[in-house]
Fold this sequence. Notes:
Layout: E1 2-6, H1 15-26, E2 30-36, H2 40-44, E3 49-53, H3 58-71, H4 77-105, E4 112-115, H5 120-130, E5 134-138, H6 161-176, H7 178-188, H8 195-204, E6 209-211, E7 228-230, H9 246-253, E8 259-261, H10 271-285, E9 289-292, E10 305-308, H11 313-316, E11 322-325, H12 329-338, E12 342-344, H13 351-360, H14 375-387, H15 389-403, H16 407-419
Parallel strand pairs: 1-2, 1-4, 2-3, 4-5, 5-6, 6-7, 8-9, 8-11, 9-10, 11-12
Helix pairs in contact: 1-16, 3-4, 4-7, 5-7, 10-14
Amino acid sequence: MRIQLITVGTMGSVAPYTGLGHRLAAEGHEVEIVTHAKYAEAVTCCGLRLRPLAADPFEALVGAHGRLRDTAPARGAVHRLQELRSLRQAVEPATLGLVDGILDAVDPKADLLLLSTLAAPIGGPLAEYHRIPSMGVFLQPEVPTREFSPCAMAWRPPGPANLLRGRAANVLVDGLYGPARRRLFARLGLPHHGGGRLRRERERSRWPIWHGYSPSVVPRPADWRPGLHVAGYWWPHECPDWQPPELVTDFLAAGPPPVLIGFGSMTPGDPVRLGEIAARALRQAGLRGIVQSGWAGLSVIDDDVITVGALPHGWLMPRTAAVVHHAGAGTTAAALRAGVPAVPVPVMTDQPWWAARLVRLGVSPEVLPCAGLTAGRLAGALTRATGQAGFARRAGALAARLAQEDGAGALARAIDGLGG
């Protein structure tokens, strides 16, 4: 079967699909990943084909959030309105930039399109236009349920209000994609369909959506319709020829397991200030540290701390005592797989939701919002995470359950059923 997997966003929105694509290719399918050109190495080292999207408009979205945070530190209602307006202004060109790229990338002769959350509003109508079967392959839940709040909002316990919150979140997302939908339907020569109508049609047809996270982390809601599946995690494929740098292996061998601190594709404020907070927190907690520079450009020069670039989480995290991270869906998954405690420092979008989930799972002592991060608060959380044995014990037990799951295999079997 000829499969195109379309995903857009940051590295966390691409890496899980390298593992999924690799598994589908191993099952005999011809797989092509459509994503931003800068992720070519991550895709092609899996033996998969890449059809590149030249632009990466989501860098502008992350940057807009960072600029707003830096210029308007107050967190009241006025700031929240400013934040929403600023993000909307950044999202519009981001989604418009995707329309032409995805239109040109989709192969009308494909047998199946697999669409990530951010690609689905554009890829779904396009698949229907070309009469190509399609499925959602989402890393976060986005269908409303009573059992939890939408991941764009703070985590809420079960209750009927969560359905209203979920519908409101979907209305907001559909509105953000409005200009992109108009461009898409204009290029296809079709009458424009609103986001609400498209979503209702998707639900009536029971469009299949597979979620690439574990039911041990977020159980499948009992009130979801048929066709909504929780498959288990799709672990990123790691290049078999990769070798760790000597700086890191020597550092790991020189003492007890360190704490990993990294914020991935986020830009959480002044990197100098953030580096100083990290260094002081590690000193106060009496811990060694590895700091990943990431998009934030972090750099720490201190005793018992090294700064590194991108390293495979599947290799590095199991060798640490705890992980301080932004609680993106992919990084959250990697830390859970490693079986080590987490200290989440969320920055934006779904990160506060995943961070709260880590606390509820008992693998994290508390959430430390990035806006109020201090060395003292970080040191206190690290002391609890590494000093109280319950966090490591629960993290290890959860990692053992995840190791028994086969999320990529679940989707592969479903696709094989389509071919039969």
